[in-house]
Amino acid sequence: MAKKKFNLFEIFNPTKDGKGVKKTSYGDGWGKRDAPTFFKMYIENLGRLLSVNIYMVLGNFPLFFGLFAMGGYLNKHTTAPSSQLFGPVFGVFKINPGNPAISALMGVHGIQTELSVNTTATLILFGLSGLALFTWGYVSVGTTYILRNIVKAEPIFMWDDFWYAIKRNLFQGMVVGILDVLFMGLLAYDVVFFYYNIGPFLNNVMFYFSILVSVIYFLMRFYIYILLITFNLKLRHIYKNAFIFSILNFKRNALALLGIVALVATNYALFIMYIPIGIILPFIITLATGAFIAAYAAYPKIKEIMIDPYVDEKEDEIKEEPIFRDMG
Q1: Which residue has the higher pLDDT, 264 or 6?
Q2: How distant, in Å, are the alpha carbons of 54, 129, 145, 251 from that of 139?
Q3: How far are the Cα atoms of 84, 85, 89, 100, 112 from residue 108, in angstroms, in the given order?
Q4: pLDDT at res. 23
């Protein structure tokens, strides 16, 4: 038989036959989802997780405009006195420049500091970064669909699945994404605000309360996007069920939270030891790893409560994705 000639264009042909579904060490379909299976899944799907991380980073490309603007590369740089007493001291110095005491004060209060002032170009970049408000939800929907199917041990076609999930959830994906960004921004602002205003009893209470709410919402995010892509639910039911699961699945949620904290701490430690590694890891694997930990913790409980009990009685209604009732 004649040997098939190498064709460079076949490498990039999206219509050519694939290699088929790769056999996994943890079996096909649904099985036990314990700690050993987690590490098996993670290692055997590392290439897919690298791709998911790329989708997360490049999909939210408007954020790069904001990062560039924060770097101050397009700002106007000038200097100004660092002391508030510079004005009076400088006035006295002009009147009596030969006085040794005034000269000494001028040396202390006349120290200049560098100022970076936003220019029109910088403000435009900050405005462009706001487009991430609309990309965030769609990227989260597409990547969550892939991560959920990894946890389910189903066949995955990365690019097709990513866009398939977005197309099926165009409206809710955008709305949930906008709400997600707004909630995270508001909670971050509350924590920082009350942290720097700790003093009176009420501020102390509000600081710890804002931390508690932030943790609960962080756990709810394990479920929000999975519920969105898996079920036909209204927005209020998505958030209500996510809140219920954040409390109901406490054990797995706590382990996942510890895992994500350990992941971030490790990334930060690497940043301290060698800055380039600490900076580049979030752009390569850290984001996808954290999202995979969340999906691995969340989906088994969703399957147990919202899918398994109703599969038989709702069998005729199941098409590509199941349609189930609200928990509450």
Answers
A1: 264
A2: 11, 15, 10, 28
A3: 11, 10, 10, 13, 10
A4: 57
Give strand pairing partners of 78.
Answer: 115
DSSP secondary structure letters along 25-38: TT-SSS----HHHH
Q: Which amino acid is at 42?
A: Y
Give the span between the Cα atoms of 303 and 299, in whole angstroms.
6
DSSP state of 310: G
**How many Å is the Cα radius of gyration of the chain?**
27
Residue owning tokens 């398939």: 164
pLDDT digit string (tens) for 100-135?
Answer: 777 777 777 777 777 788 888 889 999 999 999 999
- On whether the CB atoms of residues 239 and 220 are closer than 8 A, the answer is yes
Q: How far apart are CA 46 and CA 288, in angstroms?
A: 10
Residue 128 sits at φ, ψ, to 5 deg, of -65, -35
Which of 145, 201, 66 is closest to 320 using CA atoms?
A: 145
* Confidence (pLDDT) at 107: 73
Q: What is the pLDDT of residue 89?
A: 73
- Which one-letter DSSP state was computed for residue 79? E
Write down the mean pLDDT value for the chain.
84
Cβ atoms of 96 and 171 within 8 Å: the answer is no
Dig out the tokens for 211 from the structure.
């931390």
Distance CA 310, CA 26 (A): 26
Output the DSSP codes for 105-127: HHHHHT-EEEEEE--HHHHHHHH
Say how far apart CA 136 and CA 299 lie, in whole Å. 21
Question: Which structure tokens are listed for 70?
Answer: 């924060």
Question: Per-residue pLDDT averaged across 216-243, rounded?
Answer: 95
Per-residue pLDDT of 223-236, as tens digits, reads 999 999 999 999 99
**Tell me, what's the pLDDT at 51?**
96
Residue 157, by phi and psi: left (phi above 0), alpha (psi -120 to 50) or beta?
beta
pTM of the model: 0.81
